[in-house]
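Annex B.
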Amino acid sequence: MLKELQMGLRACYMLASRVWTCICFLLRKQVRANRQNQPISCLLASINLCSLNLQCSVKIIPNLLNEWKLKVVQHQPVKYELFPLSPLSRHRLSIVKRKVLVLDLDETLIHSHHDSNSRQLIKPGTPHDFVLKVVIERNPVRFLVHKRPHVDFFLDIVSQWYELVVFTASMEIYGAGVADKLDNNRGILKRRFYRQHCTPDLGTYTKDLTAVTTDLTSIFILDNSPGAYRSYPDNAIPIKSWFSDPMDTALLNLLPVLDALRFTQDVRSVLSRNLHLHKIW
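CTD nuclear envelope phosphatase 1 homolog: predicted structure tokens.
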């Protein structure tokens, strides 16, 4: 794609050079015509034609460049390759406890909105990944759910490293349906906690990690809302809220950190150094 862009720029330069040469030639011809007192109406028409071609080129070239740029962005590959562990790494992993990764749902792994929601953050017409139909207070509600980019790959990888637990402040009837879709019969999201397991706090909900396990050396949460883990800042990894960006790579960017964190004796020895990343509520 870069080679095509270079060829396009070279062609544009050659076209501009030829147009300028043509204009200079016609101007010289005009001077000679003036000397001979000849009419120059044809000459002016030729100059206008050259100017029109140049203007068209100026308008078309940026459009072509924008189109090439768009193609480059859309086709940029994002890869994360896994390699076999060395004997030393396998031994190290065998002597530490398997850890628990707690996962939030909304704006962390997915974003959803329902039909009656007038404040949709998704651009109209954006295709959803699945539809979740539930009944809330005897009213049928249809949620359109969008999965964060690379979430399926992310779950497939981290499920090999950690015990995964869903902990959402959403109602169970909704959270269970979303978790089922993300699990996709893989059996990797068996343990789940919902709104009834949260603690109401100043109009929001906080999540008590000791409800999952009392061993805080081996548990941490991935959540876009710092208020949800305000009691456990040393056991949390913040992530930017996701709503609609199709180029988001936040989940992939976390894989190297999560790969290394499973080898530690105490996750807090690492995560306590990232307190500056958490927003203050």
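The chain is about 40% helix and 15% strand. Helices lie at 2-35, 41-74, 87-94, 151-161, 172-183, 250-261, 268-271. Further annotation is deferred to the next reporting cycle.
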